[in-house]
Here is the input.
Amino acid sequence: MEENNLNSDSISLKDIKERLKMKITKDQKKSLLKRTFFNIIIAISMILYLGILISGKFNIEREMFITDLKVITISIMFIGIYIIEYAYRKDNLIYALNSFEVIIYGIINLGIIYILKLYEAKFTKAICVFALGIFIYYFCKIIYINVKNINRYKKDNNDIREIIKK
Here is the structure.
């Protein structure tokens, strides 16, 4: 006796179990991997930049290094503002949140200038703390985004409500 063909209006437990175990589609996986990869690239770029700052402190004259940091900070802020404008035009919340991350990174960069001026001996340690903070932030962000989106995709792909309505 097959459970599926007892009655056209009946619902089998087997059907419900299969629907609950529904996986995410390939397009959804591709979307998740794309966002994850994007965030990893951003985090690596930020951390490499901080590593370059440590190297620059020892290889570039102090006043020239401070001037370079100021120019880079202003550039980072302009990039953040441009991303905000782009997010506004596209009405995209993800870009808006990314723009705030860039602006915060610019503020950190501004703080690095003052750390270099006031606490030069602690400069390397401060850069390492910032790099660790960036790593932890992006690690948690990637996990949060993936868990949230996987749950959303599973819920979207789940058609138990439609089966129950029958």
DSSP finds six helices and no strands in the chain. Residues 42-156 form one domain. Residues 1-8 have pLDDT under 50 and may be disordered. The two ends are 21 Å apart (CA to CA).
